[in-house]
Amino acid sequence: MTLPSSPEMLVVSFILGVVASIGGGVIGGVVVGGKVLGNELAALLGGFYGPLAGVAGVFLGLAILTIVG
């Protein structure tokens, strides 16, 4: 496994992690609240609230990988 060693790779990894957390939030929102709220509103709320934990996890993971590596 290669660690993100350069600052450019850290930024790219962070952006990909943020995009993945937004996508996961959208999908999770539709799955969990699609019937009750409607798919569009559930996707919007999932896309907004999904990255709250995802961005912190990505940042913490990249920080740990940078320190360890």
What does this structure look like?
The chain is mainly α and 69 residues long. The protein contains 2 helices and no strands. It is elongated. The relative contact order is 0.20. The model has no long low-confidence stretch (mean pLDDT 89).
If you compute it from the alpha carbons, what radius of gyration comes out, rounded to the nearest whole angstrom? 15 Å
The pLDDT mean sits at 89
Would you count the extended β strands for me? 0
Poorly predicted ranges: none
- First and last CA, distance: 11 Å
Judging from the principal axes of the Cα atoms, what is the shape?
Answer: elongated
Biggest beta sheet summary: none
Bin the strand percentage: under 5%
Helicity, in percent?
over 70%
Number of helices: 2
The topology string of helices and strands comes to HH
Structural class: mainly alpha
What's the short story on this structure?
The chain is mainly α. It contains 2 helices and no strands.
Give keywords.
mainly alpha
Write the layout of secondary structure elements.
Elements: H1 7-37, H2 39-68
